[in-house]
Design a protein that fits this description.
Strand order of the largest sheet: 1-2-3-4-5-7-6
Order of helices and strands: EHHHEEEHEHEE
Shape: globular
Distance between the termini: 40 Å
Number of helices: 5
Number of strands: 7
Strand content: 25-35%
Radius of gyration: 15 Å
CATH superfamily of one domain: Gcn5-related N-acetyltransferase (GNAT)
CATH topology of one domain: Aminopeptidase
Largest sheet: 7 strands, mixed
Structural class: alpha+beta
CATH class of one domain: Alpha Beta
Length: 158
């Protein structure tokens, strides 16, 4: 095993072995509330990830922190715009991992402008995006699965 400095962050290709970890991370109730994004059951989750991994227009990486799967980061085309999103496992929050991962990922994803959406109450994710150069370009609302309305910021990186 290679010696790594403390707090080492690496982005690498997603493997099948990462998926069960991603699945568990997206079940955390606090993370679901922060992201304002519902979890999926195992079958739907695995089907979704097989689709992501098989799509050549999607750029996706596993975020490794000190050799452990800390989350994932992804970019895809949606409605003619290039989007970016990420999910960091709760036990890795507050360590700067999101900011470091996004900053590195932006070197892989060259198209600009690049867009992101973040729930207004998710201050930590908003800070990650802003630290990496995204600026608020608008606001929107959407209905969540329980019928509640979620307000979000739309962000853009030129």
């Amino acid at each position: 095993m290679t010696e790594h400095e403390p707090n080492t962050l690496i982005l690498r290709d997603v493997t099948e072995a990462d998926l069960p970890i991603f699945f568990e991370q997206q079940l955390d109730t606090e993370a679901i509330q922060m992201a304002a994004f519902p979890s999926r059951d195992r079958e739907a989750f695995m089907a979704h990830w097989k689709k992501i991994m098989g799509n050549e227009n999607v750029t996706v990486r596993t975020i490794l922190f000190e050799e452990h799967v800390a989350g994932n980061i992804v970019s895809w085309d949606q409605s003619g715009q290039r989007e970016v999103g990420y999910w960091i496992g709760k036990k890795y929050w507050g360590k700067g991992i999101g900011t470091k991962a996004l900053a590195e990922f932006l070197g892989y994803v060259k198209p600009r402008p690049l867009y992101a959406h973040v729930a207004k109450h998710n201050v930590a994710s908003l800070r990650v995006l802003q630290k990496c150069g995204f600026v608020i370009s608008g606001e929107d609302k959407f209905s969540n699965e329980s019928g509640g309305e979620i307000e979000e910021f739309l962000l853009k990186l030129e």
